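Same chain as my last thread, 256 residues:
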Amino acid sequence: MKPNRTISLILLLSLTLLCFVRQPQKVTVWSIGDSTMCDFDLKYLIKSGGADYPVRGWMQMMPQFFTDQVIVHNAARSGRSSKSFRDEGLWKPVIDNVKPGDYVFIMFGGNDQKPDSARHTEPRTGFKQNMLAYVNEVKAKGAYPILFTSIVRREFGKDGKLVDTYGDYVPAVRDLAKETNTPMVDLYKKTWNLVESAGPEGSKKLFLYIEKGRYATLPDGKQDNSHLCILGATKVAGLAAEGLKEIKSPLAKYLK
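reply #2:
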């Protein structure tokens, strides 16, 4: 057999074998929650001040911590509670598309505190029941729920110490995780340590603090102690990644 023909046959055989090599399967991560977690699109940024308006949700920054084997669908929406997210029909398209083996990140609490009837829930009853329903529905699809406690608000007392603003909502998630044996990342504890260590002044760099005159729509600037800027959202996403490793989630192997 001529050398050139032999080489051609080897190449053909190699290509044929490659067709049968199993490609690594991608993993899908869904997320539901509120504005501290959601994606802020360009339209929203421009409306708020400009294309460089710095607000971000921490889940919006999460893809940079995963390898390209992970597909992220961030369904978190601004202003929603554990109640209104379902009532407004935002949950149905998520759970309808969740497949066996997918992961669903769940984080509510901040808007459940709001007094309006469309969003308010009591932490130990309605809120906990809503969170349990999300967990059970994800498990019923053969997928894996992961609970996340809410991130802290930047509120310091006169003594310079961070103040809890969530009451029983965070403990309710912790209890639910234990009672149902559901994996949980305690972002509240992690962000508490982050914000507290930065201090009253340094922690402003993590949140949406905008100086006067930067945007025509905000002549007096903005001081928002609930929502994250790009730096803050990136750091919180890093804490979430750290948490996945700590709870030994199978997702940890897809982290960079």
